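Q: What structure does this chain adopt?
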Amino acid sequence: RIQILFEDSMVSMATTGTVVVMLTLLRYVTPRSTSSGSDTTSNGPNIILIMADDLGYGDVTPSHPNTPNLQRLFTSGTYFTDYHSAAPVCTPSRAGLLTGRLPQRNGVISNFEPNSRAGLPLTEITLGEYMRGAGYRTGIIGKWHLGHTPKYNPRSRGFDYWYGLPYSNDMGCTFTTPAYQKQFSPSCPNRFNLGIPVFENFDIVEQPANLSTLSARYEKHATAFMESARQANKKFFLYFPMTLVHTPLAPAEQFRNTSGQGHFGDTLRELDHTVGVVLDYVEAKDLRNSTLIIFTSDNGPWEVECELAGEAGPFKGTWQRTEGGGGSASKMTTWEGGHRVPFIASWPGTIKPGLTDGTLISAYDIVPSLAVLAGFNLPPDRKFDGRRLPFVSGYTPSPERAIFIPEDDEEELVVARWGKHKVYYKTTTVVDCSGSSGTGSHYHNPALVFDVSQDPSEGRPISSSSDFLRQVEALFKDKRSDIKKDFRSHADYSLDKSLRPCCNKNHPYCACNDNPVREGNAVDDKNVDTVQRTNNVSQAELYWFF
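A:
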């Protein structure tokens, strides 16, 4: 296994020059123990990490009428009510989850675009690389958003297979009708004039994406990936960052007008159906007791989309709306509604079923937790911002735990949860449903503090003693100092329009859908790389035709 990893790494080294990262991988991303002729991950579970897009805390409840399959996870697992995504916006959230490191460490402080030159810095190690080094077959089905050029593609970042979108489904145009979005038209032509591409590994297999059939194809590719691992007698890590419920919404025909809650409710039903397909597979193959399933969201609901967006539940950001000048308090903000999202963990026989747990946890906890479960070591040349989750061996409770909440496109840490307290040195907002963007950012000295255990809507700042405020200042000072001393990566946010993914440069929207969409073949990695692809567009043609 080490030889295979080394040979794969040499290819990456030859194209990227990231020798230090590859040496780190070879030394530390290895199974803790092996036995000749047996699976190196025999004691670890299969792991399925499902992450919805823009799903709010209020959209997932144990008795929601439109989510019967999520109820299956509630019943069989534990619902964590104080979980926080790695960031309140797409790209930094995914980078934090997959590296276990804050944006101030991994370098990813804002979203990448369709014409971005780069992606997640090559000096960062992803969860896919860790899991593959531990002997798992690794796959991603869904939205990547960490760089779409070849060396930033998921296949170059530790994943054996990828089928999905390179970025958000609104970063381009579609021929799909109906498709619903408030801010701008999703139909070609629009502000991008670039069809949303669907990738399989390094190749575009559809452009523009048919959004109303995308989830059904995700389901097929996810089950094919899991079955390929099962047939090979290998444990699998399936990272499933769904496109739903990010706008534009284009629910499949079978879900339209079925929820009684408009287009969003119909889309939520489709999301739930996809979860059900995954559950049905692991149950049918008798893998349920050997599979950890995590369900969560990348950030809170996008309030500017009004009735097409989800609900943040009790996390209203009332101070922002009444005292802070108005605007949104959900996605793209550091108010609780922007990053406090659903988190369900289900693993029959290991995680207690049907429980609710109020422990303060975050997406940064996933990497160190899977290190224990899958059996890989984290490299000592960099620091991580999480700790073990409560259901992982070696977990120790900490009532006064601090979780720092990164603000979009902000290089300094200015917000944190510290136990029951939410601390702001800066508050900010974005456009809300009414079109108001408020009065901009506000800086606070002393810090603005809320007790979210008593005031989840964050409407009543508490009076803090000078001793408490000194402790808060020390907390932030220590964290900032720790980051400055750490190994840090730096993302390249430069743009080059010629790098936009395009499978047909002669079409104004890069459309290449004259041929039927190939369903793909995830059964064998070698087959995946050599089977005939729609329009036979090569990796070189995709990016370097200019």
